[in-house]
Description:
By secondary structure, this protein is an alpha+beta fold. The chain has two domains: about 10-40 and about 435-565, Immunoglobulins (Immunoglobulin-like), CATH 2.60.40.10; about 130-385, no CATH class. Helix content is about 30%, strand content about 30%. The protein is built from twelve helices and 26 strands. The protein has helices at about 20-25, 110-115, 135-150, 175-190, 195-210, 215-245, 270-280, 290-295, 300-310, 340-360, 375-385, 430-440; strands spanning about 10, 15, 45-50, 65-70, 75, 75-85, 85-90, 120-130, 155-165, 165-175, 250-260, 315-320, 365, 385-395, 400-410, 415-420, 425, 455, 460, 465-475, 485, 490-500, 510-520, 530-540, 540-550, 560-565. Strands 1, 2, 18, 19, 20 and 24 form a six-stranded antiparallel sheet that branches.
Amino acid sequence: MSGGFLILKPICRSVLVFWLGSTMAMAQEQPLPILVESVDVRVINVDVVVTDRKGNAIPGLKIGDFEVYENGRPMKLTNFYEVAGNRTIESPQAPIQTKTQTPPGLPAARQSEQLPENLQRRIVFFIDNLSLHPFNRNKVFESMKTFARESMRPGDEAMVATWNRSTKIRVPFTKDHVNIQQALEGIAGESAFGVHNISERRQVEGQIREARTQSEAVGAARQYAQSVEHDLRQSVAAVNGLMATLAGVEGKKILVMISEGFPMQPGRELFFFIDDIAKEKRNWGGGGSSLIESMSFDATHLIQSIARTANANGITLYTLHAGGLVGGNEMSAENAKPLSFTAQQQAISNSTDSLNLLANMTGGKATVGTNNFKMGFDQIQRDLNGYYSLGYRAGTERVDRQRTVDVRLKNNNKKYIVRSRKSFVEKSVETEMSDRVIANLFYEGKANDLKIFLTTKQPIPTENGLFKIPVEVHIPMENLSLIPQGELHIGGFTVFVAAADKNGDMSEVSRQNHRLKVPQAEMPKTSGKFYTYALELLMEKGRNKVSVGVVDEISKMTGFQRTDILAADLR
């Protein structure tokens, strides 16, 4: 799919399926401008957790207890509700409009499944196998399995992804916690790169001890830091890519990251180690402090990019440092010459600082410096079961621009801790549609207000080994908005298309605009009819998925569909 995998070619026969002759030709003329003003009333929603100093949720707060600032400007709250378990508690000052009524007589289990979309929860477990020591990882798994079993309720979905220089979705979104537990048990039997990473660092420590000059020692540390920085960039790209596919997924989304990596300053501990060794090496001479060199390896912006991506896509990060109290296992018997205390602390803080930052910027919680991982998962469960949703009217500008958001309690109440995301991106319609089309490739969705459906025809082999796949998008005419202008009714829609192969590699999202013109006399004939928009996809051989989204230009109503395609010679 990369490198030109997907090519979209609109075919100029995209017309109402019952139109013929001159009507078809009229549909292809240059469209007239649509004289309509669209008023887009949008609400920015921010989930807020309020706890005491021990992490216990504080219930019963009202809309008047909160203040919200966007880019430093106070915003007037218009929407507010408190979430307590699987129900919402409305504020009399700002009634919630998203709550649904459960039909009487529905069984209790089915009632939970009827939760509003915004209360259904998606939990992603991201296991950073590249940095984890298997012993530490598997300790966390015991608490993670208990969390999955006890926290998932009807309507919730969870998935498991691992990173080991490639991202693997071990379990796609599932409502069965048993699938999650079985996946974790399988991963627990696999190797992890954390052992290799420790061995590599100890090898560099040996080079530093044996270095003839401080400059030679710094060179060894620099080479190691560059290698760690390279791995970090790949890890950041992986987690950002995973979160990007979740952008169009509805509901409350959290990502639980298990790691011993994501260093704030790659190789920082070894530069501190050099300073320690320099005190023993009289023959090194006055080489100066190596810590200045370490400052050139600053990955703060990379770490922050993860938090910004999470905030832009409505994802809260909960991070767990699997090293616990031991950190990098520096005091184990196999390590005959452990790092100094200072270097050990730098090794631990290098990754715990980043995990703290990620949680803080997204309104989550970091579990670091402890072997009590159950405590960390208990906190996540408390957060999911008790929080506040605040909403305020967005401005008139809807562009892909990051904005800061700051939630406070009035009177600056010091007894309580307030956690929420620190930024958001109010996405344009185009970006939002692209996100949802990508999400539709990987995660089952139900949003199809336009009631579109897809049909495909037999693949056509090409000379270069690719296949042309004819795809038709059928849109009910009664769901498209048309504005009368003289003797015509005019409207339009935009089609978004993306594809993915069996390995999960995906194309760019392609977008095509199309305008409609229906003569006044033809309008009665549109009842019960479909508008058909035809595309050709150029694909590599194999099994693929295609996701299509359509947005009405006037009403902004949307529809999404996905279909599987076998690109092969079927003649």
